[in-house]
Design a protein that fits this description.
This protein is mainly alpha-helical. The protein has one domain (2-14, 22-83). 72% of the residues lie in helices and 0% in strands. The protein has helices at residues 2-14, 22-40, 45-62, 68-75, 78-83.
Length: 89
């Protein structure tokens, strides 16, 4: 979990395609919370990633303006989950 948070924060900080502000960090932490919750209830890494992406898209659908960078910020937690080597997918 600790490594996932560090990698997520680093990915957000180094990303050149989105402006980093408090909103993007909140999206990333929300996505991480969804992914960790998914892992806790027994989802695979890919399923947890899909859940984070789904939450990001759903949140933007209800917003007045759909923001692709916000969806990316929410789903950035997928990077360490998908790069992690394991056989439970």
């Amino acid at each position: 979990m600790k490594h996932m948070v560090i990698i997520t924060a680093t990915a957000l900080t180094l990303s050149g395609c989105m402006s980093i502000g408090p909103d993007k960090y909140l999206h990333a932490y929300g996505g991480a919370l969804v992914a960790v919750s998914g892992k806790t209830v027994g989802l695979t890494d890919k399923q947890s990633c899909a859940a984070s992406l789904a939450v990001g898209v759903a949140k933007e659908v209800i917003d007045p303006i759909f923001s692709i960078p916000d969806v990316f910020a929410t789903a950035v937690v997928c990077v360490p989950l998908l790069l992690k080597e394991n056989n439970n997918d």
